[in-house]
């Protein structure tokens, strides 16, 4: 399995050993540059001036610094992919409810992920996919938890080092496979999920899309139809879809046959829900099914593992927090027999708060990616013409003392304490709750429908590790720092933690 992203630009340029060639390429690049700089600055809001390189390589400090200057105001940043308009938390409320024909998430995501080349787009099935995740998958959670636990126990037994005594382990790559394995059980069902080829494809599809986008962004838009042929990940994406199709084919065909039998009850997984939910013409369309499966894998596996890994780093760095959360897990899951009980993961309220606090500090740099389709005028008078690209400076909100008192301190019980204030607060500050100043799962009709599933997977994995292992940082090591590539923030993938197996008597 390889998840390495090679960000080198193509080193060999076809046909390029004479001066005319270089002059032609140079002129074309100059025209592209000049065209970009003639782009009208059509929104009446101040600019935060920063070099493009900062956007590419130091986006978090750029967002934090710009937010500290403008805070409750709309402002703009010139980024690699054009001007971005940054929306403060106090104006998110009036935008998040606007319909897709006015403010589009799909168009914004398609542009950002260059779907024309990467094919990363559910197309007209986007709403269906989100609805199946929000409704069917979330409603099946209680029944799914024992199956996910079975997958986690299996992968830990077969792939996690024994750790009889303290042993170094890179948690990130293990977490990736553990999350892929748990999610796969709910998405494609037990049979395909156990195939190594599926594990590999479902993990690496997102990596190929991401690497393709980063490489394609180095070409101006009009050069991309040619540039795509120099990006190997574009071919890899097509291969991933072909591999997925070959794996899904026998299962889908068998289910379609079985469904003709009266009284047939299909298994509880996304493959089945897609067969039932897709139009008659698309039920048996393997390409459509495979793309939707891989898009969902890409939206869910890395995001979930990123947070799971950051949580593990904080457990290793804070032994006292580890002990407190272990006690809670022991009480709810072992003493009260919670592994088998409905809703027991919801009872892990301290763990819930810890996960939310880890996400507050290590979560998204920006969120709420949208494109204006029809003109919008905000209540502060700012006019947003069609074509305007919007973002919310989430890293700024997360460290704003008005929203989160003493924001620079890591307080694992911050949200636990907030939840105890009233019944309303108890709902408001759960891990899965969203608000205008907490957009780590987005906002409005496109808010992440998989957050309940993600929350359960992370709670399950953390509880399992708390009860079965102790974890700490290697001698003299600091808590591993997140890495930032453009707007994406991810945990240090190579950091080692020390694990030691516990017995229930410890
Ligand atoms: C900690 C893990 C996760 C994080 C931080 C996360 C975050 C996000 C964010 C920020 C969005 C965009 C929301 C917006 O623009 O308003 C999103 C959308 C989405 N997420 Fe997640 N996600 C996670 C896990 C998952 C999982 C496990 C699934 C599937 C089971 C999932 C499925 C989706 C889908 C289908 C969308 C598109 C929704 C739409 O456009 O209507 N996500 N997610």
TrEMBL record:
Cofactor(s) annotated in UniProt: heme
Keywords linked to the UniProt accession: Heme, Iron, Membrane, Metal-binding, Monooxygenase, Oxidoreductase, Transmembrane, Transmembrane helix
Transmembrane annotation, as ranges: 19-35
UniProt entry tagged with the keyword Oxidoreductase: yes
Chain residues that bind heme: 448
GO molecular function: heme binding; iron ion binding; monooxygenase activity; oxidoreductase activity, acting on paired donors, with incorporation or reduction of molecular oxygen
Keyword Metal-binding included in the entry's annotation: yes
Cross-referenced Gene3D superfamilies: Cytochrome P450
Superkingdom of the source species: Eukaryota
Family indicated by similarity: Belongs to the cytochrome P450 family.
Name of the protein described by the UniProt record: Related to cytochrome P450 monooxygenase (LovA)
Biological classification of the source: Eukaryota, Fungi, Dikarya, Ascomycota, Pezizomycotina
């Amino acid at each position: 399995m390889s998840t390495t992203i090679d960000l080198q630009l193509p080193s060999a340029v076809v046909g390029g050993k004479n001066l005319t060639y270089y002059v032609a390429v140079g002129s074309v690049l100059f025209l592209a540059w000049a065209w970009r700089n003639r782009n009208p600055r059509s929104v009446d809001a101040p600019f935060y001036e920063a070099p493009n390189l900062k956007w590419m390589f130091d986006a978090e400090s750029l967002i934090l610094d710009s937010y500290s200057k403008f805070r409750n105001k709309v402002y703009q940043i010139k980024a690699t992919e054009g001007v971005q308009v940054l929306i403060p938390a106090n104006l998110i409320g009036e935008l998040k409810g606007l319909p897709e024909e006015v403010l589009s998430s799909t168009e914004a995501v398609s542009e950002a992920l260059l779907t024309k080349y990467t094919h990363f787009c559910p197309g007209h099935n986007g709403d269906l996919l989100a609805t199946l995740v929000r409704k069917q998958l979330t409603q099946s959670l209680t029944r799914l938890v024992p199956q996910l636990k079975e997958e986690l126990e299996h992968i830990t037994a077969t792939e996690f080092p024994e750790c009889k005594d303290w042993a170094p382990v890179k948690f990130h790559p293990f977490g990736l496979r553990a999350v892929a394995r748990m999610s796969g059980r709910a998405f494609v069902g037990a049979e395909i999920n156990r195939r190594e080829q599926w594990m590999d494809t479902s993990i690496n599809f997102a990596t190929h899309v991401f690497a393709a986008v980063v490489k394609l962004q180095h070409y101006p838009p009009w050069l991309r139809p040619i540039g795509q042929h120099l990006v190997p990940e574009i071919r890899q994406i097509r291969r991933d879809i072909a591999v997925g199709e070959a794996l899904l084919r026998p299962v889908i065909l068998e289910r379609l046959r079985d469904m003709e039998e009266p009284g047939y009850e299909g298994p509880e997984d996304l493959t089945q829900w897609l067969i039932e939910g897709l139009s008659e013409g698309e039920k048996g369309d393997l390409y459509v099914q495979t793309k939707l499966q891989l898009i969902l894998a890409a939206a869910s596996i890395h995001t979930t593992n990123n947070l799971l890994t950051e949580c593990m780093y904080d457990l290793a760095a804070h032994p006292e927090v580890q002990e407190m959360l272990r006690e809670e897990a022991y009480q709810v899951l072992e003493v009260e027999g919670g592994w088998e009980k409905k809703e027991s993961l919801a009872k892990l309220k301290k763990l819930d708060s810890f996960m939310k606090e880890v996400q507050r500090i290590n979560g998204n740099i920006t969120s709420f990616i949208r494109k204006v389709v029809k003109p919008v005028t905000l209540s502060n008078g700012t006019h947003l013409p069609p074509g305007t690209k919007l973002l919310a400076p989430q890293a700024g909100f997360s460290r704003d003392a008005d929203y989160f008192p003493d924001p620079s301190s890591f307080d694992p019980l911050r949200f636990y304490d907030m939840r105890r204030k009233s019944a309303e607060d108890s709902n408001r500050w759960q891990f899965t709750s969203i608000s205008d100043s907490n957009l780590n799962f987005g906002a409005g009709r496109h808010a992440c429908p998989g957050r309940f599933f993600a929350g359960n997977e992370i709670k399950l994995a953390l509880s399992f590790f708390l009860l079965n292992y102790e974890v700490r940082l290697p001698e003299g090591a600091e808590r591993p720092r997140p890495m930032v590539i453009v707007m994406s923030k991810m945990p240090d993938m190579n950091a080692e933690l020390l694990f030691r197996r516990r017995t229930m008597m410890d």
